[in-house]
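Run: sequence + histidyl-adenosine monophosphate -> complex structure.
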Amino acid sequence: MLQAPPGTRDLFEPEIALWQKIEQTVRQVMALAAYREIRTPIFEPTELFARGIGEATDIVGKEMYTFTDRGDRSLTLRPEGTAGVSRAVIERKLLGGGGILRLWYMGPMFRYERAQKGRQRQFHQIGLEVLGCAAARADAEAIALAQQVLHQLGIINLIVRLNSVGTLEDRHTYREALLAYFTPRQGELDPDSRDRLTRNPLRILDSKDPQTQAIAADAPKLLDYLSAESLTHFDQVRSHLTDLGVANELDHTLVRGLDYYTRTAFEIQSSDLGAQSAVCGGGRYDRLLEQLGGSPTPAVGWAMGMERLVLLLESQQGEMPPAVSVYLVSRGGAAEAQALVLAQSLRQHHLSTELDLSGAKFDKQLKRASQSGAQLAVILGDDEVSQGVAQIKHLSDGTQVAVPLPEVVDHISNSVRQRAIAESDNLLTRY
Ligand code: HAM
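>> structure
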């Protein structure tokens, strides 16, 4: 049997309702903060990621889906969104003569990783980028908006971890200090970290190996190698975050897996996600646009993994409200024809309606009505049609009334509205 490739998933009910909830929430938060949506291609020239993310990173070194197209171009399925957004900003001159650009995006990304809970080969990100602003206020606004999305989704048990990885110049001196510290101890490091010693020593700090972690705990700290400007910037970010009520923790070992970061680096982690604890990651990347051939443009942003958001919503929240308000049951030629028209009319009045098309016996259809979670069932048989009525059954308590057909839509609208009012009163008294 043909199967979906490892690390990919089909999404459908009921999980998809959570995806829709996330999408709606993000659209709302972004619109309120005046961020505009951008959609960039799923594949880009391989060189964009090699230059942007960095040859020495795991992503570029071993995780990219790269192929040659029929025109002999090397293309890669995007492993992340920042490089593509930066390419679009440069190519389309979206920043024009300066100014500040606030963008957000949502969509699939691809990394050839070992699939496990919260880690997919095709995964989905929501991301945000602020381009053209070097001020610490931009970092703080971006981080607070990530927090806002998570808060509005009702996700709890989160922690914002923050570090500054300095400028390229700051890091140059730090790299020397790290090499001097780790080289005499290389025999005790895990094989991956030994490999990183020459290619990318900063990433040793990010090792998950307990022995390497113990050694890394005493390594020189990046903050001690920052220039005065980088330190001031970092202090300002933290002070703005405090003003915004975003609690955060300094994490000296947070270095992130992409090479483009400068100064602020952060992650939002959840203790409810197991090994893949980062729900959001991001930071500042003041040199990336220049490296890609654009003019020097300070920028900051983040991305969240949608699969991880869904896992958190599933573990932290109860059932989603039912998708439909009305379930329409009918049997017999005239009744079935009438029900088809009634369903259309209900939907035109913004009442979500599922029409049972099975033609099965009433008790079977009514069982499905109860299982659907709908508030009301509308029952139409040929008897009802000849009397010019429909039976409306409240599925929560089983009460039933006959309503003249021309009044059915109004009757249902009122019932659904009254229930919504009762539910919001209920919520208000609870909080
Ligand atoms: P990243 O840390 O590589 O950053 O990814 C951001 C988030 O995407 C992670 O925190 C995680 O939630 C999710 N994620 C990453 N890989 C996977 C995977 N294989 N399966 C499921 N979820 C995953 C970036 O991608 C940067 N572009 C973020 C950024 C934007 N920095 C500045 N602007």
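>> summary
The domain at 326-430 is CATH 3.40.50.800 (Rossmann fold). The CA atoms of residues 19 and 384 lie 40 Å apart.
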